[in-house]
Amino acid sequence: MSKELEEGSGIQLDFSRFKSAGGHGVMPVVVQDIDSGEVLLVGHASREALEHAMKNRVATFWSMSRNELWIKGATSGNTLELIDVRVNCEQNSLLYLVRLTKGGACHTKDADGQARSGCYYRRIKGDKLEMVK
Question: In Å, how far are 12, 97, 107, 108 from 120, measured between CA atoms?
């Protein structure tokens, strides 16, 4: 690794490590609630998704399952306001620091029909999954 990549101020984001089914270069994105510190989800961002996120200040991803731009909340209304974007040392993954503006981050719903705050609501307990929230 070069010192400039790891310590410098130049942007050298590596979208080439992972490819979507449609051939779009993407990188992993961890999404964390800036207020609670809870990890809400892990997604992928293409260059286009990151540019949209930065310009519009809303968490935006490249949907690997639908092979299209995914603007969080566009259909569900559960929007994540983008507060800050961090880059890891190798410039091959991102951290979106967000604030929930409505609903939750997960597309699944709890027993009351509400969107879950995050996607990590189960734990491995022996040979089964157990609800934690």
Answer: 31, 17, 12, 11
